[in-house]
Task: structure prediction
Amino acid sequence: MTLLRTLLLAAPAVLALARPAPARTIADCLTSRYLVEGSALVVGDTSPSQPIVIAHGMVSIGSVCPPAAARYQFRPDAIVVRTVFPRCTGLHGRVRLTVNLLPECTSVNGRLRARRVNRGFSARLSVCGDGIVDAGGGEQCDRSSCEAGSACSTSCLCVPLPTTSTTSTTSPSTSSSTIAVSTTSTIVTGSTTTSTEPPGFSVARRWDEAALDAIRRDVPRPPVHARNLFHLSVAMWDAWAVYDQSGVARQYLTSEPVQISATPGADRNQAISFAAYRLLKRRYSSAFAFGAADSQAECDALMDALGYDKTDTSTTGSTPAAVGNRIAAALTVYGGTDGSNEPGYGDPTYFPANDPLVVAIPANTPMMEASRWQPLALAFTLTQNGIPIPDNVQTFIAPHWDGVRPWALVRTAPGLPYRDPGPPPALGSATDAAFKADFLEVVRASSTLDPGDGVTVDVSPAARGNDTLGQNDGTGYPVNPATGAPYASQVVKRGDWARVVAEYWANGPTFETPAGHWNVIANAVTDQLGDDRRFGGSGPALSKLEWDVKLYLALNGAEHDAAVASWGAKRYYDGVRPISAVRNMSYWGGPAGQPDYAKGLPLESGLVEMITSATTAPGQRHQAFRGLEGNIAIRSWPGQPTNPLTQASGVHWTLGVKWVPYQKNSFVTPAWAGYPSGTSTFARAAAEVLTGFTGTTYFPGGLGAFTAPVNDFLRTELGPTQTVILQWATYYDAADEAGLSGVFGGLETPRDDAAGRVMGAAIGKDAFARARQFYGTTP
Result:
C-alpha cells in the first residue's frame, strides 16, 4: 500500500498544509491483516486463509479467536506481538499467540499454543493483488472473480464495465484558488517504486524528503531524528560550499579545497547526493533504525532517478562523487564520537526513580518520588499467586543527550543544562500549590475534549495568536498585513478544535517527530514563496538549491540544539508526566491516602470530586462508582473507545486512579520526562529560524492553515464532527499552538510548555546567527 503525501497550497493568501503519510510505518504494521499460509491454524475456521488481524491494540484469528489485548515488544530485528485469548472456538483453555513482525512488515512468523496444540506458522500481508480475495479486508475481488459485466479494479473492487465505447471523458475543472502539489520524492514499498516527485525540487529538498520518509518508518525518537536531520543538512551544506567559487561560504565539518568547475550546478547536485545518500544509508540501516528495507530502497531509487552510480565509493580525487563520499565519511567519524552512543543511542547510567506504572491497573501504591518521571508498563503478567508483574516497560529515550555535541549552544555553568529553565514545582514542597495547579489544568483541558458540550470558539487569527512569549494571552490581529483586510472568523466546536490540535502536533507513531514536522512546514513555506526566495525578505532571489541548503543548515541546527538542550533539562529535572501525577494525587486523595489528603488532587466542583454515598445514589453523577465511596472522580476524556473508527468517547466521570491522557491505548505517553516540553522547544526554535530567514514573522500571504476534514482526520477516535481548519498568522502562532497540543493531549503541563517556548526562542536565534557565519558576507 503506497500513500502519497500531498501539500495543498490554497489561494495565494493562504499556506495550507496536509498531513503526510508514509508508505509503511510502525502503526501500519500494527494495524494490518496477515493471511496464514498452508493449513488453518485452528481446525474448523471458515475464514479464507485464516487472517490474523492486528488493530487498535487487539489481535484476532479468523472466525475462531475473538479480539484480545496485544502486548508489544520492539526489537531491532522485529516487533513481537503476544496475545492470550481466553477462549477460541475449537480449542480448549487459554490460547497463546506469538507473532513476530519482520522489519519490512510484509510477512510474519510465530507460534500458537493451546492444550495439546503447539504449532508454528508463517503468514503474509494481505494486499490487493496477492490473488486472495480477503473479504474481511474490504476486497470484493483480486485479479478476477467478479460477476459478468464487472471487472476487478486496482483497488480490488468490482466495478461495472462500460456499456458503450463512445463515452467522452472530461477533465474536472480546476479551481483557480487551490493547487495540489505532491511533496513526496520517491516512495518505495517493498519492491515497488513509484516516482511522485513533481518537477522543480532541488536535490537537497529531495534528500530531505527521503529523510522524512525514513523517520516516519522508524521508532519515534525526537532527539535522534533531529540529529540525523542536522547531520544531513551539514553534509549537503559542506558539499554545496565546496563549489562556492567566491570563497565566501565556509564548510562546517570538512575542509575540502574549493573546486573550480565549469559546471558547478551539476557538480554540486552530484556531490550533495553522494554525501546525503551515504549518510542516510547508514543512519537508516537495520543496525540503526526500524523500517530499514523501505528506507534503503527509497535512497537507492532516488540515486537511480538522479542518474548517479551508487556503486561509486571512491574517496580519492576531485570528482563530485569522491567529494560527497569523503564528506559522508567525515560525518561517520564525527557521529561515532559526538556523544550520541550510536547506533543504539543507549545510556546505561540512567535509572528511573519510580517503579513502573501499569497503565491497565488503577494506581494502588504511592509513587516513591512524586515529582519525578515514572516509566509506564503497557502490559503486565500475573505470577502464580496473582501478583501483577509489569511487562513491556518504557525505557527513557536518550537521557544522555545533554552530552551530544551541539550546533550553537554554549554551556554557561558546569553541571547544568545548556539552557536551564529552572526547577519545576514539586509535590510536598514549598511549591506544592503550583504543582497541583499545573496538573489540575491538564485535567481541565481533558474536560474540554467533548464536541457535544455546546461550547464554540473562534480559532481564527482574528481572535487567537499574538501571544507574549511563554504565555497564552494573545487576542489575535486586527488585519492580515498581506491583504490589508481583517482575518475572517472561524467559529468551531471547542472539543473538535482541541482534539485536532492535540493530534496534528502529536508527532507520535507514523509522524515525522517535531524536527521533521517543522521541516515539512519549512518546505511548504518554500513552495509558497515560489521564485520570490530572498534571504531575510530582501536582496536578490536565491536559487532553489542555495535557499534549501542554507535554510536546512539553520533550521536543523536549531532543531538539533533544541533536542540537546531540552533533553538535557529533562534528564536534569526528571519531571513527572501527567498520567503519573494525576493518578498518584488521586490515590492520596482517596481512602488509601487517609489521613494524608494534603497530597491529593485539589477538589473542584464539576471537575474533581470526592465520591460519596449521595453522589452514587441512583440517577446521580457518580452512580457507576457505587461501592467506591471515598475515591476521587475526575470529569475528563475517559480513554480510547472500543472502535476508534466509528466511535468517540466524549467526556465522562472516571476514577482518578485510572485517568489517562488523550492518546491511543498503544501509546499513552512518551518514554521521556515531561519538563520542559520538547515539542514547545523544537517549535519555537524553528519559528525563530523561519522568521529570520524569511525576514517576517508572518506566513506567506499572512496565513498558514491545515484542514482536518469532518470524521476523516482523528486517529485516537472518530472525528472531528465538523471540518476544522487550524490557522496561524505567524510562525510564532503555529509554535505556540504546538505547545498547547501537549496540554490538550494530556502529556504536558502549561508550565512544561512555557519553559520550552522560552528555551526555544533563545536557541533558535542563536542557531540562526551561527548559520549566518557559515553563509559568509552574502546571505
